[in-house]
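Folds abound. Consider this:
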Amino acid sequence: MQQYALIMRHEDGGKIASPEQMQEWMQQTMNWINGIAAQNKFVSGTGNQG
C-alpha cells in the first residue's frame, strides 16, 4: 500500500475564529481522521506545535 503524508498548518485560529468555530472545526477534523482510521488507512498523527 502506498503511504502519503498530509501536513496541516494554520495560523493562530484564536485570532480569526470564535471558540465555537474552533470547536466545530476540530470536531469536523477529528471525524475525518476517525473515518480514515476506521478504514485502517491512518498510520499516525501528532499534535506538535513549532
About this structure: The chain has a mean pLDDT of 77.
